Amino acid sequence: MARFELSIETHFSAAHSLRDYPGDCARLHGHNWHVKLYVECTELDELGLGIDYKVLKSELKEALEPWDHYNLNDVPPFDRINPSSENVAAELYKKMSSRLDNERVRVSRIEICETCTAMVTYWP
Length: 124
Ligand SMILES: Nc1nc2c(c(=O)[nH]1)N=C([C@H](O)[C@H](O)COP(=O)(O)OP(=O)(O)OP(=O)(O)O)CN2
Ligand SMILES: [Zn+2]
Known about the structure:
Elements: E1 4-16, E2 29-41, H1 53-64, E3 70-71, H2 85-100, E4 105-115, E5 118-122
Helix pairs in contact: 1-2
The structure holds ligand LPXRUNBV and zinc ion (ZN).
InterPro entries: 6-PTP_synth/QueD, 6-PTP_synth/QueD_sf
Enzyme class: lyase
EC number: 4.-.-.-
């Protein structure tokens, strides 16, 4: 079976602080969070596309809107769990899977970079 992995990248701006963190990241600070979305496709459509990059970009943009230019600690579920890169990646994976997964397409992983020297990859 053929498999294609497509990816798109974007960023959003948001503040966060890590509750109970023993250091400077417990203080409110901001990042331009870099996001990479990967989807796996097993079949192409009649145009030869796994899924249109434009669809991926608009769905990701919409999913990030509740976080963009907010303090993540104020936004569910990060009002309860720490807005670490790990938790942000896992939450975004859930959001994007519910938007995109179907019989041909599946979100495979999410990468999040808080800074250009620190990043996480999440897949279930
Ligand atoms: N495993 C994780 N560790 C840390 C997280 C995280 O989400 N997961 N987050 C932070 C802080 O939020 C911090 O903003 C990022 O830390 P760091 O990469 O150290 O950022 P600096 O700008 O301080 O980088 P320097 O290279 O030290 O200048 C911390 N840890
Ligand atoms: Zn941070």
